[in-house]
Amino acid sequence: MLAAGERKTMIAIALVMSVPGYEKTVYNAIKSSQGVVRLNHIFGDHDFLLMLKGDSISSLYRYIEDIRKIEGISSVDLVLIGGEGCLEEERMVTVLA
């Protein structure tokens, strides 16, 4: 449960695949994108793992839509993480886009 005066923070994890040859361009663009608090280059089916924070689900969607517009991105998979106590309050949200 949130203490009085605390703001709820929504967190999302995104897996990003870039077009071959665009990795540096995509990395630099994501690095300066709003809401991004962590960015890692990964190896496997995707090229980048990023963590986004926002004050609402709609703000996270806005951030991810801006990221999807970056030249050189071929796909973005998104998972929203429910906040502390979300199961007790029946507010659990899972979205795959």
Strand content: 25-35%
Count of DSSP H/I helices: 2
What fold name goes in the CATH topology slot? Answer: Alpha-Beta Plaits
Overall 3D shape:
elongated
- Helical amount: 10-25%
- The residue ranges in which pLDDT falls below 50 over 5 or more consecutive positions are 87-97
User: What's the story with the biggest beta sheet?
Assistant: 4 strands, antiparallel
* Major sheet: arrangement of strands: 2-3-1-4
Question: Brief description of this entry?
Answer:
By secondary structure, this protein is an alpha+beta fold. The protein has helices spanning 23-31, 57-68, and strands at residues 10-18, 36-41, 48-54, 73-81.
Verbal overview:
With 97 residues, the protein is of the alpha+beta class. The chain has a single domain, classed as 2-Layer Sandwich (Alpha-Beta Plaits), CATH 3.30.70.920. It is built from two helices and four strands. A four-stranded antiparallel β-sheet has the order 2-3-1-4, with helices on one face. A hairpin with a 6-residue loop joins β2 (36-41) and β3 (48-54). The two termini are 28 Å apart.
